[in-house]
Amino acid sequence: MPVIRFVREGRDVECYPGENLREVALREGIELYGLKGMLGNCGGCGQCITCFVDVVGESSPGSLSGRTAVEEQKLRRRPQSWRLACQSLVQQSLLVLTRPQVGLGDAEAKIAAAKASTLPPGPTAWPVQASEAEADGAGDAETATSDEEA
């Protein structure tokens, strides 16, 4: 699985390829928002620009999906390494600095430490489990039986 290394928080989080960066961060308790964002974020629609993150040193080319038209518009005056978490899909492992607009006293040291240990590349596809497919087929047969009984 791809690993997202959140530099400010000092945490590594696994996710599936194609998962939304904002959803992964919120699920794992990573704080994406400052006060303004906590009080009034758009819920992941790309309109409030409060969930932006910095992809540190483009840790891996192609680690996130390409910039969307919304990002191009909303982040036109921001550094190219900044992305909206709600518009970004994780493809491969990467380093992320949350709330880059907020100062981080020892930013260079934390970034250097995060870059020092390598990230696993992770798979490029969702895992397929045969037992789920078999269970779905068995569930259909059970449903038909229970319908007939009713």
The biggest beta sheet reads: 5 strands, mixed
The total of beta strands comes to: 5
In total, how many domains does the architecture comprise? 1
Q: SSE string, helix = H, strand = E?
A: EEHHEHEEHH
What topology does this entry show?
Layout: E1 3-6, E2 11-14, H1 21-27, H2 35-39, E3 52-55, H3 69-74, E4 82-84, E5 94-98, H4 107-116, H5 130-149
Please summarize what this structure is.
32% of the residues lie in helices and 13% in strands.
Question: What report would you give on this structure?
Answer:
By secondary structure, the chain is of the alpha+beta class. The chain has one domain (3-149): Ubiquitin-like (UB roll), CATH 3.10.20.30. 32% of the residues lie in helices and 13% in strands. The protein contains five helices and five strands. The chain has helices at 21-27, 35-39, 69-74, 107-116, 130-149; strands at residues 3-6, 11-14, 52-55, 82-84, 94-98. A five-stranded mixed beta sheet has the order 2-1-5-3-4, covered by helices on one side. The termini are far apart. The model has no long low-confidence stretch (mean pLDDT 80).
Question: Key features?
Answer:
150 residues; alpha+beta; Ubiquitin-like (UB roll); five-stranded mixed beta sheet; 5 strands; 32% helix
